[in-house]
Amino acid sequence: MSLSPATRQKISDTVKKAILCKLERYEPKTNYMPFHDRIVGRRNRAAFSLIHSINTILGMAVFEKVAQLVAKETFPVVETQYRQLRGYLSQGAQAEITAIVDALRNKRAAPNKSDESRRVSMKAREGILGEERNQRVDIFLKAHDGTECRGVKSSLDNTSPV
User: Fold this and answer.
1) By the 8 A CB rule, do 136 and 161 touch?
2) How far apart are CA 61 and CA 105, in angstroms?
């Protein structure tokens, strides 16, 4: 799928605007970093700090906006920071998710979405259901046929009403 010229331009404008805004408003949090200065030099540390700040703003605001722009070309419903994803998680499913994440983090397993989904589904009815959870995802999409697609989980919020 190729992006429309209008979407390409919006993406370019979004990235440029974020970087230019960061450059105009950038102020280091501190100028006193003697260990960093000794290791990489003051000038290099300042450049690194600016680049780190730009990467942070890209990750926090721009990538999500770009995903939204791209998705709008295909999906009729596109929402960012979607908070209306509610449900329950059994103790068995939670334990299986924890085991999968642990194996992935410790490189004892390679990512395998279909196998991981199957394993969690098999445990979905084991144990007591936990409290209702309100989950926020970075991007939520709904296809023309009503199929829902959920993006990266940002956080779990069990206390805030939706």
Assistant:
1) no
2) 26
**Distance between CA atoms of 148 and 55, rounded to whole angstroms?**
30
pLDDT in tens, 47-80: 888 888 888 888 878 988 999 999 999 999 998 8
Instruction: Locate 149 and state its tokens.
Output: 């697609």
Q: For the chain, what are the domain ranges?
A: 5-74, 79-157
The 10 Å Cβ neighbour count of residue 68 is 19
Question: pTM value?
Answer: 0.59
Question: Rounded to the nearest 5°, which phi and psi values hold at 126?
Answer: -90, 130
Question: Which pair of structure tokens corresponds to residue 148?
Answer: 């829902």
Q: Which distant-in-sequence residues (6+ apart) come within 8 Å of 49 by Cβ?
A: 28
Tell me the CB-side half-sphere exposure of residue 14, using CA atoms within 13 A: 20
- Contact between 72 and 78 under an 8 Å Cβ cutoff? The reply is yes
